[in-house]
Specification:
Order of helices and strands of chain A: EEHEEEEEHHHHHHH
CATH architecture of the largest domain in chain A: Orthogonal Bundle
Radius of gyration of chain A: 21 Å
Strand order of the largest sheet of chain A: 2-1-5-3-4
Strand order of the largest sheet of chain B: 1-2
Structural class of chain B: mainly alpha
Order of helices and strands of chain B: HHHHEHHEHEE
Oligomer: heterodimer
Radius of gyration of chain B: 22 Å
Helix content of chain B: 40-55%
Helix content of chain A: 25-40%
CATH superfamily of the largest domain in chain A: Alpha-helical ferredoxin
Number of helices of chain B: 7
Distance between the termini of chain B: 29 Å
Largest sheet of chain B: 2 strands, parallel
Distance between the termini of chain A: 57 Å
Number of strands of chain B: 4
Chain lengths: 260, 259
Amino acid sequence: MSGTTGEIINVTIKVWRQDGPNSEGRFETHPQAITTDASFLEMLDLLNEHLNDQGHEPIAFESDCREGICGTCGVMINGRAHGPQKATATCQLHMREFADGDEIVIEPFRAAGFPIIRDLAVDRSPLDRIIESGGYITVNTGAASDANLTPVPKEASDQAFDAAACIGCGACIAACPNSAGQLFTSAKIGHLNLLPQGQAERWKRTESMVETMEEFFGSCTNHGECSEACPKEISLDFIAFMNRDYLKAKVKNRALTGQK
Amino acid sequence: MYQRITGENPYQTPMRIYPATHYTMGGLWVDYNLMTNVEGLYAIGEANFSDHGANRLGASALMQGLADGYFVLPYTIGDGLAGQLGNDPVPTSDPVFTQAVAGINDTNRRWLATNGTKSVDHYHRELGRIVWDNIGMARNKAGLQQAVTDIPALKEEYHKNVRVLGSADTLNQSLEKAGRVADFFELAELMARDALQREESCGGHFRDEYQTAEGEAQRDDENFAHVAAWEWNGEGTDPTRHQEELTFDNVALSQRSYK
C-alpha cells in the first residue's frame, strides 16, 4: 500500500440489531461504499449517518480513543472478535483489509456475562467487578517517596508490563467457546503479582479476583482462542501463573501476613 | 501502531508526520485547593487549569493527574468534606436534584422533538471545519472574528435543524452526542474569543500578526503575562474574562527559540 488515497470499495454490511436487553434481535443488511483508507469504525459512522438521514435509528456501538488503547470498542466481525487482522482492536482495523464486493457480518460480543444493551453495545461491567475485587495496590498518598525506593527486577518489570498491556476489551471472553474470563483476569493479576509493590495483597487479591470472575464467566479449558483474539497478544502463560497463585493462595497461612 | 493506521511500513516508507492542534490548554478554574467556583466540586488533572502552561507537552496529562491526585488532593479535600461531617446524604427528593432531573428531561425532549434534516455528526463536522480553518495552530484577527460570527450562527441552525431519532428511554448514542456537540459549540466560541483577545503569540497560540523576523512566536509580556479564566454568565450572555497574573521571581522571561 503506497499511502496515497485509497480506492472506493462496495461492501454489504450485515449487522445485528437489537432494541434492548430483552428484545428479539435480527440481522439487517445495508450496502455501503467506502474508501479503503477509512477505519472500520469510520465506515460504521458513515453508515449511521446514512441511516439517520433516511429516518432510521443509527446502530449503537461503543468506541472512545480509536487508538487501540482504551478497550471500549469491540465487535465480532465475520465471526471473529475484533475482526480478521491479528493483534488489532476494532478501531485500528481499516477497510483496506476488505475487498470490493465483500459481505461483512457484524455482531456484538456474545457471552452470557456480557448482556446486550442495544445493537452492538454490550454490558461489560463484570470486568469492573473483577477489578474492584482486587485489581489494585493499596498505598498511602500524600508524601512523595523516592522513585527508586523499591528495586524491581528487570525480568519482573518486563513480564508485568506485558500483562499490563491488557486493555480490558473483553475479546478474550467473546472468543472463548466457554465464555471464560481467565485471560483478562490473569493479565490483571499478573501485572500486580509480579511486582514487589503487589506482594502485600497478593494472596487476597488472587483469591478474590478469581472467585469474582467465576461468578460471571465460564471455565477455562485451555482452548487458547482468547490469546488468538487478543488485540494485545496477552500470553496464556499468565493463566498458568494465575492458577498457580490461586492454589498457593488457598494453602498459604495468610493469617500471619494480614491477608485475610 | 503507525503501520496499522496508515497501512505503510515505516521501515520501508518514510513516516508521514504532521503537527496537530491541541486547541485548549487546561480546563476549569480552581483555587489552590483544587476546588472549582462551585462549592464542594473539585477538579483534578487536566480537567483543571492550574498546572497548564501556554503549550502542551507530551505526558502532561499523566503528570498532572499524578501530582494533583497523589500530592495535593489528599491534603485539601478533607477540608472540603469536614463541613459535611454528620450530615445525612442529600436525598434524591431534594428540590435541587429534582430540578436537575427535570431540566435534563426537558433538554432530551427538545432534542428529540426538533426533528430537523441533518445529523449531529453533520454539525459536529461543520463546527470542526470552522475551528480547523480559523482557530488552528496559526490564527489571525480576521479569521478569529469570522469564527466568533460563524459559530453562533451554526449553533442556532444546529438547535433548529438537527435530527435526533429514537427515544430517551433506551441507550441512545445520538442523543448523548447531541448534548456533547452542544457543549462543543460553547467551547469553540470561547476558544475563539480568548484567542482574539490575546494579542500576542505564546505556546500553542500563534497569531500570524505577532511573530519575529524569523517566524518565531512573539510574546507580549508587558500586557499578557497572565492566565485568562472565563466566567460563564448564562445562555445568551457574553462570558467575563478574569486575569490571574503570572509572576516570576527567579527567572527572567526571555524569547524562546525552537531552533
